[in-house]
Amino acid sequence: MKLASLMRSAALVTAVALLPVTTAGLAAVDGRAAPQFGKLYAIYQRIKANYVDPVDDETLVRGAIDGMLAALDPHSAYLDGSDLERLETMIDGNYQGLGLSVTMEDEAVKVISPFRGSPAEKAGVKAGDFITHLDGKLIYGLELDEAVAKMRGPAGTPIRLTIFRPGRDEPFDVTVTRGVIELEPVTSELKPGKVGVIAVNEFSRDVGADVKSAVLKLRREAGGSLKGLVLDLRSNPGGSLDEAVALSDLFLDSGQIVSQRGRIARENIYYDAEKVYRGDAAKGVPLIVLIDAGSASASEIVAGALQDHHRALVMGERSFGKGSVQTLLPLTRDSALKLTTARYYTPSGRSVQEGGIEPDITVPQLSDPDRAKRAKLRYRESDLRGHLVNEVDLDDKELEVDKQTDPRFSATPEELKEKGIEDFQLYYALQTLRHTAGPAALATKRD
Q1: Mean pLDDT of the chain, nearest integer
Q2: 94-182: CATH, from 3.40.50.10680, 3.20.20.370, 2.30.42.10, 1.25.40.10
Q3: Is the pTM of this model over 0.70?
């Protein structure tokens, strides 16, 4: 049962493939590595004999494992106990808490993104926020599991978060009332002008099927004829590689979707269209894909495939730039190794590692009052310590767009708020599709 749960949990690991490993393989050690293992054992012995306080073997061994994996890249890790439980919750669960996806950065809890509709999102918590205190108590330096456990609790109970937000001069407090978090990876809405919006929040199990159902639902609501479709992948940190392939296949009827290439032959895999779904589920419907700096991995696979095949216009901001595949290697019944085993490439052969997906039309989020300040402190894959280097030499500064102000994007957040525009990127995508659809679709109210 534990191993089965472990295999299911892989669907939430960013762009994960699955590969079994035998216990016997763990015991095999290359003789040429013996001197290095001897050095490691010598250090272990000296710590046990001379450290100021007694240290148990579990602490030393776990520290050695974590240090070894941290020397590789930011995405390889050893998972057991609560780490695996958290993955299982993300794929299967509903739980009681705040509805936040978080990570640890320089010993501080950083928000990857709040889940849409969660208590945290409704309270105003944003991607990129740092949580420094819980109910006035400092959590800096805690293990991530400890911090997450403190944030969870019975639905209906409040907790006060102290937040440092890049772009703000001072920390501030937000009180969030915990709720029952039911993960909803796909949401959809029909906008005026018969333009549909499908937001994919994570690539968990059955996302491809859920988006297919959403397309059918939107078409029915539009009276049988959609005039346009927006696929919103903003702040989507990724998930299952298989679901990224399935979602891409939903809108493609031929050609390659993505390829992955590793050091060993079995990691060289090519994924083609028409293997999961037949035909294009929205054939003839103009499609826009929205991305931003929080769109990573599986999101970049979809955006890159639809962009390379000219099936969609990609809008927004340059994506995160995570172009690697992690394989989940079960070790025991309740532990596993998440290891980077391959890079992936778009159909045209582009690696998004470091560089990310560049949108066809760069559209800034003008409705964000902290946009300019946040942009200076925004981080991507290329900013992570120990990240994989793109095989093509890239200068991150050269990836930045022209700094000259585009006259289309000169409105202030205050001006947009007066017009009722709360999400400028989505507004611009909808207006573009309405122009494409013709005058009838333009005769609508502003979103």
Answers
A1: 81
A2: 2.30.42.10
A3: yes
